[in-house]
Write a structure and sequence with these properties.
- Strand 5 and strand 6 form a beta hairpin.
- Helix 1 packs across helix 7.
- The strands form 2 sheets. The protein has a 5-stranded parallel β-sheet with strand order 2-7-1-8-9, with helices on both faces.
- It is 45% helix and 20% strand.
- The protein has one domain: P-loop containing nucleotide triphosphate hydrolases (Rossmann fold, 3-Layer(aba) Sandwich), CATH 3.40.50.
- The protein has 186 residues and is α/β, with parallel strands linked by helices.
């Protein structure tokens, strides 16, 4: 079976940016497109950035067992569709999952061989600045995400690898080293 890389960390830590850079450096990696009940942000496309589902559609898929993992996060639901992951791994492609901490824990239970990486902000203040600076969330959503982030940061020791996203280039290089090491070992 192809390697699965779980990249997690609090909202606003830069998971998406790190993964985009990682994918450009390690072209054999494929990104699994997650499902969510949140509304698309400007420029996001269904099936490309996320599979955007209604609450009812999401719940139906939960009932059908269609998710490898799913979680409630900051008032929204997110999950990895089993079909999305199986399509990529069956083709032999190593896959990256960008998921929340709750989901990463579920994947650890069902896929113990998955490589788990926790992205850490350089500081809590830097995390706040990133969430505010991206301009995609209301002040209430930013505060809710920061509250969840506080809880999630206490979980970083549960994960096989930790990468501090202080300087983007350094963090991407560290992720690339982890992936290369695990692909060689895999």
């Amino acid at each position: 079976m192809a390697r699965v890389f779980v990249i997690t960390g609090p909202s606003g830590v830069g998971k998406g940016t790190l993964i985009r850079n990682l994918l450009s450096r390690v072209p054999e990696l494929e990104l699994s497109v997650s499902a969510t009940t949140r509304r698309p942000r400007p420029g996001e496309e269904d099936g490309v950035h996320y599979h955007f589902l209604t609450d009812e559609q999401f719940e139906q898929r939960v009932d059908e067992g269609a998710f490898v993992e799913h979680a409630d996060y900051s008032g929204r639901r997110y999950g990895t569709l089993r079909s999305e992951l199986e399509k990529r791994t069956a083709a032999g492609a190593p896959v990256v999952l960008e998921i929340e901490v709750q989901g990463a824990r579920q994947v650890r239970e069902t896929m113990p061989d998955a490589v788990q990486v926790f992205i850490v902000p350089p500081s809590r203040e830097a995390l706040r600045e990133r969430l505010v600076g991206r301009g995609t969330d209301s002040p209430e959503d930013v505060e809710r995400r920061l509250g969840v982030a506080e809880q999630e940061l206490t979980a970083c020791d549960e994960f096989q690898y930790r990468v501090v996203n202080d300087r983007l280039e350094d963090a991407v290089s560290e992720l690339e080293r982890i992936v290369a090491r695990e692909l060689r070992a895999g």
